[in-house]
Amino acid sequence: MVNLVIMRHGEAEPQYLSDSERQLTAAGQAEVSQMAEWLHHHYSAFDQIFSSPYRRTQQTAALLVQKAVSTQAVELNTDLIPEGNAQLVVDFLDTLYAENPHAKILVVSHMPLVSFLVEAFTRSGQTPIFDTAGVACIDYHQHKGVLLEYACPSLIHLVKSVS
Fold first, then answer.
1. What is the DSSP code string of 62-128?
2. In the Cβ-directed half-sphere of 109, how many Cα atoms lie within 13 Å?
3. H or E segment at 57?
4. Tens digit of pLDDT for each residue in 15-37?
5. 30, CA 20 to 30 Å: which among 9, 56, 66, 163?
6. Fold of 4-12+21-162
7. pLDDT (0 to 100) of residue 160
């Protein structure tokens, strides 16, 4: 059962001054909307969504809530920034799972942290590269996880065009 989803934000505008203030592009908004629809159809609503405080991740998380991926307010977590420490995030979520082992959590962050998070939660020895708006769907229990599925807009588009 997937109870942890790690998501990279949608496509963002190029960096001009402040990386933390970069916004989603129109294409990024479309990517996130497409993935929100996919998540909505594949998984039940998430109990909590955590986002980096950067603008593009907050916009991504807000679109997820708007598309009914969760009915809960998004919580910001300063450990979810691009150069964040994956072990701090693992420790934080382990505390939440200790309180509620059946919680379904979605985390919105950045490369390279999303890759490090997948490795930290699955102990697979691999750090996958995420496309923008990509999601890693993990079955995580008692400090041990298994990556069950990876999806991104280009893969979903490919599957739809083959069908």
1. HHHHHTTSBSSPEEE-GGGSTT--HHHHHHHHHHHHHH-TT--EEEEE-TTHHHHHHHHHH--S--P
2. 26
3. helix 55-66
4. 877 999 999 999 999 999 999 99
5. 163
6. Rossmann fold (3.40.50)
7. 57
Mean pLDDT over 44-49 rounds to 93
Q: Which residues pair with 2 in a beta bridge?
A: none
Give the amino acid at 91: D
Type of residue found at 29: Q
11: closest CA among 63, 71, 84? 63
CA dihedral 159→157→122→42, nearest 10 degrees, is: -70
- The answer to whether the CB of 125 falls within 8 A of the CB of 119 is yes
Contact 113, 80 (CB under 8 A): yes
Which amino acid type is present at position 136?
A: A
